């Protein structure tokens, strides 16, 4: 019965870790005697490592940069997930995920001065920031609670009070996920489109069969504050809910995929990128952000020296009536990445992965006068997944960000970043990271 259930659910996205090629879902005729089945999966990630900063913005004596303390001590953190998956027919899915972590005060979370050093496994909820000694840590939260049901003719409905945007999209346009390290490389090169937002939401996907097999079309909406009843503070379909709406069109074949997507993000929602991008998005009002993406992958028919190739590009256009800097009337941001993966290179189940790209950065400022801004930078990571058993793997990894703060390398002020002659001039800041991640699955 367990194997039957997995075959029916294997194609569903985001099971909590990278999955092998999915099996075709079973038809109703093939599961006439299916009885409700529940499977519990557990995953524990433990990360030990440290960051090293360089550049003129670093104050070595105070161990600070841009006025923020550097979180560069060797730290040891954990992330624990319990997935409880239930199916009533063999073709539906009811998921509850309990999750706990203690990454909040570490350099691996979204903390200044370099929030782009966040790891894909980094988690803590509710958030305990660095120096917040009175905050309760190691709490267990409900990270997912949603239902997915087939509607027939290739249609599937998803809905839940705690659901991620990616849970509702039928395809993921990347195979660069064997050993995910930096979160920025797990957004298909477009942080604005693939926001990975979690909240209350619903979505509808269509994957036709026969002549149109391989095509997929999906719509998903998520409101991070959708559970609040006060329309001035949150709720669905309100300005305060932080609504994110995504349209995705993809075409997938056994060895390749090409996917286009568009996301409209309401004001007040976080856009992960350089501090200049994030601050402009958070402090602007009276509108939203429109984001586009083109991404896909190619993978060889058999594992060997030829790697899989995943790539993506994204662009965001800010459409607000009010910006936090006088004279600014529009902002455009850009991002891209290329990821290579070698499966079974060091033995069965092991892999080598490498990625390079540009995190989301401001590429154009619109407004009166000549505002020239250089907010771009490069990111690089290299990781090796070593499978020691069916339940344990180790992943040593290194990464480098050439300009993790972009134009705000030496300042926390938007005005100084956009008009550097008003401050102390242009500073430099880079960061290296080295870590070992142990993953237990049972």
Description:
The strands form 2 sheets. Strands 1-5-6-7-8-9-10-11-12-13-14-15-16-17-18-19 form a 16-stranded antiparallel barrel. It starts with a helix and ends with a strand. It is globular. Strand 7 (about 140-150) and strand 8 (about 155-165) form a beta hairpin. It has helices at about 1-10, 275-285, 415-420; strands at about 35-55, 60, 65, 70, 75-85, 95-100, 140-150, 155-165, 200-205, 215-225, 245-255, 255-265, 290-300, 310-320, 330-345, 350-365, 380-385, 390-400, 430-440. The chain is about 5% helix and about 45% strand. It has a single domain, classed as Porin. About 45% of the residues are buried. The protein has 3 helices and 19 strands. By secondary structure, the chain is mainly β.
Q: Key features?
A:
single chain; 442 residues; mainly beta; Porin; 16-stranded antiparallel barrel; 3-stranded antiparallel beta sheet; 3 helices; 5% helix; disordered N terminus
Question: Helices and strands in order, then pairings?
Answer:
Blueprint: H1 2-9, E1 37-54, E2 58-59, E3 64-65, E4 68-69, E5 75-87, E6 93-101, E7 141-152, E8 155-164, E9 198-206, E10 215-223, E11 244-253, E12 256-266, H2 275-283, E13 288-298, E14 308-319, E15 330-343, E16 351-366, E17 379-387, E18 392-401, H3 414-418, E19 430-441
Antiparallel strand pairs: 1-5, 1-19, 2-3, 3-4, 5-6, 6-7, 7-8, 8-9, 9-10, 10-11, 11-12, 12-13, 13-14, 14-15, 15-16, 16-17, 17-18, 18-19
